[in-house]
Amino acid sequence: MQQLLDSVKSLSARERKALAVLLKRQGVNLYGVTPIAVRETQAPSALSYAQQRQWIIWQLEPHSAAYNIPLALRLHGALDVEALRRSVEHLIERHETLRTTFEQQGDEALQVVHPASSFALEVDQLAAGETVERYVDQEVQQPFDLQHGPLLRVRLLKLSEQEHVLVLTQHHIVSDGWSMPIMVDELMQCYQAATLGREAELTPLPIQYADYALWQRNWLEMGEQERQLAYWKQQLGEQQPILELPTDRPRPV
Asked: What's the rounded Cα separation, in Å, for the pair 234 and 187?
């Protein structure tokens, strides 16, 4: 199947259009949206377009924390630290993005999914004169190394036997605002199950994000991107007005 997709993508725009016409006569829509399939191998694979944007930004500003996604949870009551550690470990095993790094091979950026491994939960205490706010701020402002990972940091701040602060920080290339509540919900389910000596009954994941990224590339590169571009050119026209925004430097001619 992948060889067929690669063959279609290698065609010129005119050749793809001609192929689409021929297939349509046979009742086949070349541009139809196909279901997302699981990748055939675990080899390094293409980035989604959103990931590619994040990768380029990181290469320009590798020491920036602008795209860190932080979350601090204040935990009250007795805490089973080992159960929490196992819960995070289970999430990392469940979600490939939490054990993914990125690399550049020639002109192509790739994501590499690493095998699941044991997770060590770091437990800290406040230094003299340090506040919780300062601790959390320093933690979430630490930049990520997208090439070497990990791209999820989990630290536990112990305030007392009955009070802790759990700090989760991810890079936007592997997460977003929609994903964080899901992750917290699954973490709570895993923790509750771990304290009872069993595994959480989470619904198996039919696909991983890398599967979606490959599907997105194939879908757009087989002609959908050209179709959408042509549509918007037709809607907007060839000549666009110049936006007269206030700038700190003269606009180049």
From this structure: 48
Question: Per residue of the chain (253 residues), what is the pLDDT tens digit?
Answer: 455 556 655 666 566 666 655 655 555 555 566 789 999 999 999 999 999 999 999 999 999 999 999 999 999 999 999 999 999 999 999 999 999 999 999 999 999 999 999 999 999 999 888 999 999 999 999 999 999 999 999 999 999 999 999 999 999 999 999 999 999 999 999 999 999 999 999 999 999 999 999 999 988 888 888 888 888 988 998 888 888 888 888 877 6
Domains in the chain: ranges and CATH: 45-195 (3.30.559.10)
The count of other CB atoms within 10 Å of the CB of residue 156 is 20
Please report, as a single letter, which amino acid is at residue 125: Q
166: Cα separation from own chain's centroid = 21
